[in-house]
Design a protein that fits this description.
The chain is an all-alpha fold. It has one helix and no strands.
Length: 74
């Protein structure tokens, strides 16, 4: 990095890697984002094998949202 404040930088968002034709599967068709892992502490959950984990998380999130909306409505 130079000390010139107006010099161009190479900083910027990196392109998202995508699934190619050879690596495509039923769960990830070609052209979708590669990786598919959940971020943070949820990265090690086997959600492909146990989709009920995602359903339970969505249900719990709905309950929390309902409590928050109920509290805000008072």
């Amino acid at each position: 990095m130079t000390e010139d404040l107006h010099s161009p930088t190479t900083a910027g968002p990196q392109p998202t890697p995508v699934v190619g034709e050879g690596d495509a599967s039923l769960g990830q068709p070609p052209g979708t984002a590669a990786g598919g892992a959940l971020p943070g502490p949820l990265a090690n959950l086997p959600v492909e094998e146990h989709p009920e984990i995602l359903v339970g998380a969505a249900f719990a999130g709905g309950i929390v949202a309902a409590f928050l909306l109920k509290r805000l409505g008072r």
